[in-house]
Amino acid sequence: MAGPKPLNTKTLVHKRTKKFARHQADLFKRIARSSWRKPKGIDGRVRRRFKGALPMPSIGYGTDKRTRNIHPNGFKSVVVNNVKELEMLMMHNRTYAATVGHSVSSRVRKEIISRSEQLAIRVTNAAARVRAEEDA
């Protein structure tokens, strides 16, 4: 099923796609993969925003509000665990796409997918854990 076309056709522009590196993360292995922490030192180059120092996160790096949280397929994602939750998306099928939850059984998964085809709702992981029955 091709599904509906997304309502928003504005191109997605991300001002920054790389994660912000923590100050001195290149010097210590133990903090190399850690998330951003704001530098608090009294003499810190990064905190004082000196030229050539690491960039600090700020509100200017934010994404356009109209395209925030939109996937490359043009839809916003909603996790669905049963058919009743899927029916909430009935009137919003051009804005939101359903993603079947990780812990949903294959039986309920098939029900969700069949109902989504009736309601013309896009399911992002429709092929996951749904195998054709084998005649043995």
Describe the structure.
There is one protein chain. It contains 2 helices and 2 strands, in the order E-H-E-H. It is mostly loops and 136 residues long. The chain has a two-stranded parallel sheet with strand order 1-2. Helix 1 (83-86) links the parallel strand 1 (76-80) and strand 2.
Task: Tell me the layout of helices and strands.
Blueprint: E1 76-80, H1 83-86, E2 96-100, H2 106-119
Parallel strand pairs: 1-2
Quaternary structure annotation: single chain
Global geometry: elongated
Largest sheet: 2 strands, parallel
Average pLDDT confidence is: 91
Q: Terminal Cα separation, in Å?
A: 29 Å
> What does the radius of gyration come to?
22 Å
Provide tags for this entry.
two-stranded parallel ribbon; 7% strand
Short description:
The chain is mostly loops and 136 residues long. It is built from two helices and two strands; from the N terminus they run βαβα. The chain is elongated, with a radius of gyration of 22 Å.
